[in-house]
Amino acid sequence: MNRVSWLVVLSLVGVLAIAAEAQPQRSSAYIAYAYPAGGQQGTTVQIRLGGQRLTGLRDAVVSGTGVSAKLVKYFRNLGNQELTLLREQLNLLRREAAAKTRANEPVDETAKELVARIEERIGEWVNRPACASHAELAFVDVTIDPQAEPGPREIRLITAQEVTNPLVFCVGQLPEVARKAMKTAEFQVLGKENLAQRKRPDDEVEVRISVPCTMNGQIASGEVNRYRFEARKGQKLVITTQARQLIPYIADAVPGWFQPVLMLYDANGREVAFNDDYRFNPDPTLLFDVPEDGEYLLEITDAIYRGREDFVYRVTIGELPFVTSIFPLGARAGEPVSIEFAGWNLEAATLSPPPQTAEPGVYRITAQRDGLVSNSVPFSLDTLPECLDKEPNNGPSQAQIVEMPTIVNGRMDHPNDCDVFQIQGRAGDTLVAEVTARRLDSALDSLLKVTDASGKVLAFNDDREDLASGLNTHHADSYVMLTLPADGVYHIHLVDTARHGGPAYAYRLRIGAPRPDFALRSVPSRLAFRPRGSATLTVYAFRKDGFTGDILLRLAEPADGFTARPVTLPAGKDNVRFSVTTRSAEAGTPINLVIEGLAKTSEGEIVREVVPAEDWMQAFLWRHLVPAQDLKALVFDPSYTPPPKRDPPAPKPETTDKPADPKPETADKPADPKPETTDKPAAKPAEPPKFTKQQVNGRLRQLSLLYNDWLLTEEFYTAKVAECEAVQGP
């Protein structure tokens, strides 16, 4: 592409980005990051969440069982005038403490605690945050049971009137190390970026760890985090990263997420391992066979040295079970299956498929060894007959004959492998061939074509976008649907676009007639209701194999007090509004709702659950529906006002000890020798008030908020209020 073309593209992207930013912002409570983003079983960890519109924050909740959350404190945004008041109060307290110290008097413990609180609030203050949606802070204690199931959960905050979006919180099995939390990043001025960069003390740049463990950190602009550890020759270390898995999309960063890079050095400073992604996954993984005893240094940074408080990571290191591939990638529901699996540290490990009673769908399965759980891998269950790819089938003359309908479980066994399948077709029949590989975490980037007996290409496809796969940005699975022109033999050819191959390049190839179907997503993943009120969300349909029919939406097993009138998503439409009503008159805790869609096809009725999702923006432009675990519903009281944390001081009573009135003049008093004159000077015009009533009211409001947050003494508060009243006048 020439220079002019690039300028045109960049200009178009800029216009679209500005247009996207110009859209009205939803007034929903929002959290942008959680740090640390996990904790070990059997521990309590305090996490820090940055967000916006969190006024009235009152609670936190974590999905699943075995984990509980408790809100500890909330830091709203402070204005410049509030900061000035806090500094004035802090200086006063410090002077009083110094005076007591000089007089050998004890300093009041309450005063010490207040000084610490004010110092913490001032220390967190940023005049111009790099991202305003991160500036409000909540601190939550998360308690994890020793037997809590390891893996990702979702954490949300609850305000007085709504529930926030979810963020990932991981339950881990290993000891955890967490670096000091990063202060809200400051806005970077072009040419003066160094002024906004993190000023980390030298002793925080490198951390010494004991293997195995999980390291938690945040990457600031231009920053590198280092971890030093001891390792022994022959150890098979697995070093995995979670970054994009924690925050899938960042709206104002290219490529749209934190792109970590791992580098490993030996004791001599020689680089012995490097990884910037694991196959197609942006989160890197190092599989390191330790060559000799000694110290090793692990570094993590962003690929282009960006950074901010939402560049959160978890790095786990140890001789841990790690699955690199499984085969097959799925099975027929209700039938027994044997799964081959390969990876690291899997000696004596077990991997169990979903139970035979499991319904069709995609499940996450793990390997276990010595009580440790590996990374999870997806496994698909379907209802069609299944078969295995049989070699050699590298061309039409060796094509593997298959009966339709079927799902072929195969893989590109080696580089330049090509799998060809032969079917018998009839004129006018519709044929569908669909690859499911990347959506099951396979390394395969498929390319699919259909030819007739003479070798003529009838259909060809490389990538097909699957909008229901909200975490994929490279839709690498292929799909073709065509009408067969004549009776006879047809060949379906499948290859990897880069001609790669190996155990990790597995696939499931569905061959047969169309199976009209659909997937459903609802946005947002939370609803807020006034008492006896209603709330609305949008349901999106992703239609498959040419399905265009009506879809009836309804609440499935509605929770007590919630109802919804069934809504039809009309034929050919891809979204519709869906309203839910509550009969509850009292506010309560969030509950989970489930919506389902029903449709009739030639093969019978289809019922699909609506997956709650959040609408995330990637890199200024693209939007994705990212699945959530639950659809949360909260009934709130709009008239509720949180009780004050602290009662304001009572006003001091007015004194009655007024001076006596002067004695009245008597008739015997001599007259004033100065005659009265009528030439008195004109009265001076009254000076305008120094502050407007609105300014004084704003000052009083600031004082009240700071006092209610236990950041001002009663004496200081009373004095400042008196100043305002004096300025305001009667």
Could you explain the architecture of this structure?
By secondary structure, the chain is mainly β. Among the domains are: 27-78 and 125-173, Immunoglobulins (Immunoglobulin-like, Sandwich), CATH 2.60.40; 322-382, Immunoglobulin-like (Sandwich), CATH 2.60.40; 386-512, Sandwich (Jelly Rolls); 518-635, Sandwich (Immunoglobulin-like), CATH 2.60.40; 693-728, no CATH class. It is 12% helix and 38% strand. Strands 37, 39, 40, 41, 42, 43, 45, 46 and 47 form a 9-stranded mixed sheet that branches. A 5-stranded mixed sheet has the order 9-11-18-13-16, with no helix packed on it. A hairpin with a 4-residue loop joins strand 32 and strand 33. Helix 4 runs antiparallel to helix 5 (714-728). The longest helix is centred in the first third of the chain and has 23 residues, at 80-102. The chain is globular.
Structural descriptors:
five-stranded mixed β-sheet, nine-stranded mixed β-sheet, globular, Immunoglobulin-like, 12% helix, mainly beta, Jelly Rolls, 730 residues
CATH class of the domain at 386-512: Mainly Beta
Approximate strand percentage: 35-45%
CATH architecture of the domain at 386-512: Sandwich
The main β sheet shows up as:
9 strands, mixed
Average pLDDT taken over every residue:
90
The counted number of beta strands is 48
Oligomer: single chain
Distance between the termini: 73 Å
- Radius of gyration equals 33 Å
Could you estimate the helical fraction of the residues in percent? Answer: 10-25%
What CATH calls the topology of the domain at 386-512 is Jelly Rolls
The DSSP helix count reads 5
Report the principal-axis shape: globular
User: What is the SS-derived class?
Assistant: mainly beta
Pick out the low-confidence regions: 1-26
